[in-house]
Amino acid sequence: MPRVSLIQADCLTAMKAIPNASVNMILCDLPYGTTQNSWDSVIPLDALWKQYERILAPQGAVVLTAQGPFTARLMLSNEAWFKYKLVWEKSKPTNFLNAKRQPLRKHEDVCVFYPRQPKYQPQMGDGAAYDKGVRKNQLTGSYGEFRPAHIKSEGGRYPTDVIYHKTAESEGPVYHATQKPVGLGRYLIRTYTEPGDVILDNAFGSGSFLVAAALEGRNAIGIELNEDVELFRNGTLDLIDVAESRLQVVSDCKIKTCPTSPALEYRKAVEWALAGQLVH
Prior knowledge:
By secondary structure, this protein is an alpha/beta fold. Helix content is 24%, strand content 30%. The protein is globular and about 65 Å long.
């Protein structure tokens, strides 16, 4: 039964309570710093990586959404760990207010970081079966020698670096201005983790990636500052309540909420998610 701990705090403070090498995947939609919203302020990346590098387990991956200048800033913030970038192709474009001056925007980036090869379960697509026979020896300057191999497929296709998922409104109510779809989170979680692994989202917003983790049978730790959040200027939102309500509809999911409190309480919430039992 997956366990999800929700912690209301500054993530740079709360992550200090997470033990070394205990998180199998960090999956987060960080603030990009590209809107006028007060909550959309970039978290200091040097301090963020100090915690990420400490808590990531062997064979773990850090997977972060990004866009525009923030993508470049993020990739350069840890060049040693940056490995590649996925492109999330959306079902609906944005940037309509600038449609007469700029192209509409229909994708966001997903940056993948790790220090060594992580778990990787490619999410295969469908295609027609084929048999191309035996490929001959080849030697190229780019990739080296190819040994003879029988090239055939029963129909499965390996994924590319472009992944299509519908936007969040296709799944139900939208609670956050930059809410990501649960389906995108499930795809990424299946790719880089196994059932029972621990996922961290240190800026969980409305909780889409936490819901994805629970649906995929992963334990999760969610951290959210939960300050000055509005949806379409209709009043403030309590993102802890939003995430709790969304998680409640996930069957076989236990939730522990730790509102703003001393670091000892953060540790209790973290230990509960990691150990699978309530720590008193």
